[in-house]
Amino acid sequence: MAERQSNAPLRAPAGAPSSGVIHVRTRLTADFTVVANALAQRPGSAVTVGVAIYILSLPDGAPVRIDALCEHFTEGEILISRALRELEADGYLDRRRERGPSGRLRTRTFFHDVPPGDGPEPPQPPSPPRPRRSEPSPPRRAPEARPGSEPEQGPEQGPGRRPEYEPEQGAEHGPGPAPAGEAAVTEPAAPADPAAHPGPDPRAAVILASLRIVDRRLILSRREADRLAPAVTQWLDQGVSPEDITAHLTERLPSPLRARPARILAYRLRELPPPLPALPAAPAAVPWQTCDGGCERAFRAAEPGRCRDCPPDAGLATAC
């Protein structure tokens, strides 16, 4: 009888890998998020995957602005904005400009767990059956001409009539070739209207050129200023003052700048909401006064006196 081996395995190996990660899974019944492997295993930046999974875990209506994401993550504004641009390019993030009930433009954010077009395509409806083409009838043989008689002319080819397939040289088919010895005359093109392509708004150009006075790093070329001018003009049309635009573009800039100033300014003009214009102060109400002329009528005036229906004071009339 064989002796019992103390070092023999108690059971056969279960097929666990000898290297790499081994998952210890727990069945979750609450507080979990379903993430597609295509997003969780997305090659590239880990910040992009982390931002995407964090947005998927948020409830509907939660803010996903740059400042809100920067408060949660330790990365700065540049990395967070780059991650959002990559998610938007892949089709996960969809930002739409809509006009609210008050008439102001606002940006609404939609996040897809699977980009549109990557999921299973719906079955296509069957195409209708094509009608069967009838076989052409054999050409009709013309009767033979009798000796001493003229051949008969059909209605389609009469004397002096051109075939139907031969195009006419008219306005629909363009002018025909010029006769020999004559040069084709072409009309000169009309000059371009300068008002059709207006230049940048002078107000926006002044605001962008004066940014380097506040921060010497914000030096823009002529092409960059022309590119940013339409967004500044849109803010001006919404009632934002030039001082508020300058403060919005120059406050809390990173140090040092890791991107060109034009890219940072373009991001702030496009993504960050503009400051609300200050409402004008309501005019002070004129107090009520009681007429001193005896009618005791109430009227509005800055100082006590008489109403316009009562005669002026006798002492004032004598002094005049």
Automatic annotation (TrEMBL):
<keyword id="KW-0396">Initiation factor</keyword>
<keyword id="KW-0648">Protein biosynthesis</keyword>
<feature type="region of interest" description="Disordered">
    <location>
        <begin position="96"/>
        <end position="201"/>
    </location>
</feature>
<protein>
    <submittedName>
        <fullName>Translation initiation factor IF-2</fullName>
    </submittedName>
</protein>
<feature type="compositionally biased region" description="Low complexity">
    <location>
        <begin position="172"/>
        <end position="201"/>
    </location>
</feature>
<dbReference type="GO" id="GO:0003743">
    <property type="term" value="F:translation initiation factor activity"/>
</dbReference>
<feature type="compositionally biased region" description="Pro residues">
    <location>
        <begin position="117"/>
        <end position="129"/>
    </location>
</feature>
